[in-house]
Write a structure and sequence with these properties.
Layout (H helix, E strand, L loop, with lengths): L1 E3 H11 L4 E4 L6 H9 L5 E4 L3 H15 L3 E5 L3 H4 L2 H9 L4 E7 L15 H4 L6 E4 L6 H13 L5 E7 H5 L1 E3 L17 H12 L3 E5 L2 H4 L3 H11 L3 E3 L14 E4 L6 H9 L2 E5 L19 E6 L13 E4 L2 H9 L8 H11 L15 H11 L5 E4 L3 H9 L8 E2 L9 H12 L5 E6 H7 L3 H6 L5 E6 L4 H10 L15 H7 L3 E5 L5 H11 L3 E6 L24
Parallel strand pairs: 2-3, 2-4, 4-5, 5-7, 6-7, 9-10, 9-12, 10-11, 12-13, 13-14, 15-16, 15-17, 17-18, 18-20, 19-20
Antiparallel strand pairs: 1-8
Helix pairs in contact: 1-2, 1-7, 3-5, 3-17, 9-13, 11-13, 12-14, 15-16, 15-22
């Protein structure tokens, strides 16, 4: 059948099982948006306030569902506004497809109105980017983009479509989407050697990363951890790969991880990194990180092997297949003494005095949320102190229930991510935990939440400062607080009301649970201004480039 390029885009989205796209229209994308009008009974379009918000919403949709998120924009600034979203998805291995409009092919390279070479701009932060110059190539390019986004280590792909390509017609033949290729283990001979290391280990530990969740391998991972009887220390991206209540779950690892995870890293004789890349926020001193142990890396991306930390063995392949292979023929291991030692370390600071404060404490706010939300409800965060408090105090019992910018550390990510998660999971509740600094970045998306009546509970940890940067200034820069006390006078309750959203405020510890419960019960978007102390810090903290021996426990 003869279809326009714009109609082909819509047909290809339907082929790929896409039911929702996030975006913002503009001149170069008008043909595509006209087609979306005709397909509106089958493709739901969420109009955000800004293209960056749309890219983060597509990201939140993808992280919380495992499906490929889709963002659509016009040319020029519409396209460049999603670059941060693509970079965020790229470093955290999130499958996205971005479809951007551009000027007509005869205007390319002429500095035409709203023209930009988005294909080259995004090359460093995508798996691939394509310019489609002929309508006959459009369907195959979109299909290739979706396949690539989910293939191997997942990530974003961009397809740039000039306006005349969306107007021109060609013959379109529907195709069923290709099933993702099975990523076989590339070095199966290593499986036996890793099994021998496991059998000989007295103090194994698992460093669990986001690759487990990306591969939908949580059941296989849990079975593997139980079989080798090893404590599990999770990176920020790995939280939720094993239930927080599981006896083997130690919690967060790295700069703001617990003392027990730092000590496990320093005392283990075997470290198994599962879908984790030894980032600088985990392996501060890369020369000393796990230096006493044999280190094994289970990884899908060959470029990550020995990139940050030298390993003794590695297995390259899909983490689900690797974990299954490792369990075959491996007998049940027992490490009671080692696990007892981990349990002792968990209580290392039990005698420390609880902080006294007239302000609500972040840990009390997050504990109340733990009590209110269901296990499969979703928490999205921005970046900063609140993000680390979530990692420390929130309990993630189900997979894909934490949405956070790990590698890029994108302030302003959370609003869009919460929108994407709530749109894709109307039967669940989404909490956005943010700071006043991050909230100011993309608070314009409150209009999106209200327009679509998305019942997100937004919890603003409001200390009136740029908390994490200020904490570093306090610790490393002699308390010279340069530009981290912005003296903003934003009234978040009035701001919420201006967007047609309920606003609430918590200023005293006794208000925490009643206000959070009231907000949750409304089943509408709510902004809660939680006034916390500017002097509360994220502790413990291992300074950059240091080890657990230099842990900071008070400031």
């Amino acid at each position: 059948m003869q279809l326009t390029g714009a109609e082909i885009i819509c047909e290809c989205l339907l082929e790929q099982g896409v039911d929702t796209v996030f975006g913002y229209p503009g001149g170069a994308a008008l043909n595509t948006y006209d087609a979306l009008y005709k397909y509106s009974d089958r493709i739901n379009h969420i109009l955000t306030a800004h293209e960056q918000g749309a890219s983060h919403a597509a990201d939140g949709y993808a992280r919380s569902t495992g499906k490929t998120g889709v963002v659509m924009t016009t040319s020029g600034p519409g396209a460049t506004n999603i670059v941060t979203g693509l970079a965020t998805a790229n470093i955290d291995s999130v499958p996205l497809v971005a479809i951007t409009g551009n000027v007509t092919t005869d205007q390319l390279g002429r500095d035409s109105f709203q023209e930009v070479d988005i294909v080259d701009i995004v090359k460093p932060v995508t798996k691939a980017s394509y310019l489609v110059e002929k309508v006959e190539d459009l369907a195959d390019t979109i299909r290739k983009a979706f396949a690539l986004a989910q293939d191997g280590r997942k990530g974003p792909v961009l397809v740039d479509v000039p306006k005349d390509v969306t107007a021109n017609k060609t013959e379109f033949t529907p195709l069923k989407p290709e099933k993702p290729m099975r990523f076989e283990i590339k070095n199966p001979e290593s499986v036996r050697r890793v099994q021998e290391l496991i059998k000989n280990s007295k103090r194994p530990m698992i460093y669990a990363g986001g690759g487990i969740l990306s591969a939908n391998a949580s059941p296989e991972f849990k079975a593997f951890a139980e079989l080798i009887d090893a404590p599990v220390c999770c990176s920020l991206m790995g939280l939720g790969c094993i239930p927080a209540s599981h006896p083997l779950c130690v919690g967060n690892i790295g700069m703001h991880g617990g003392y027990e995870s730092g000590m496990a890293t320093a005392e283990c004789d075997l470290m198994i990194a599962c879908g984790a890349r030894f980032s600088d926020r985990v392996a501060g001193d890369r020369e000393k990180f796990g230096e006493q142990a044999k280190i094994v890396q289970l990884e899908i991306d060959e470029k990550e092997i020995n990139k940050n930390v030298k390993v003794d063995e590695y297995i390259l392949g899909d983490i689900k297949n690797i974990l299954i292979a490792l369990t075959i023929g491996l007998e049940q291991q027992q490490h009671k003494d080692w696990l007892d030692k981990i349990e002792e370390w968990k209580h290392h600071f039990d005698n420390a005095e609880a902080p006294e404060s007239e302000y609500p404490l972040p840990q009390d706010i997050l504990q109340a949320i733990n009590e209110i939300k269901a296990d499969d409800d979703i928490i999205a965060t921005d970046v900063g102190q609140h993000q680390m408090w979530v990692a420390q105090y929130s309990r993630f019992e189900a997979r894909k229930t934490l949405l956070t910018s790990g590698g890029m550390g994108t302030m302003g990510y959370g609003m869009g991510a919460a929108i994407g998660a709530q749109v894709s999971h109307p039967d669940k509740r989404v909490f956005l935990i943010t700071g006043d600094g991050s909230f100011h970045m993309n608070l314009n998306e409150l209009v999106t939440m209200n327009s679509y009546d998305l019942p997100v509970v937004i919890v603003v940890m409001n200390n009136s400062v740029l908390g994490m940067v200020r904490q570093w200034q306090k610790l490393f820069y002699g308390s010279r607080f340069s530009q981290t006390d912005p003296h903003r006078a934003t009234d978040f309750v009035k701001l919420a009301n201006a967007f047609g959203i309920e606003g609430m405020r918590i200023t005293k510890p006794e208000e925490i649970k009643p206000v959070l419960q009231k907000a949750f019960d409304l089943k509408k978007p709510v902004v809660i201004d939680c006034v916390i102390s500017p002097d509360v810090n994220v502790l413990p903290m291992i300074p950059p480039g240091k080890t657990i021996a230099e842990i900071v426990t008070e400031m």
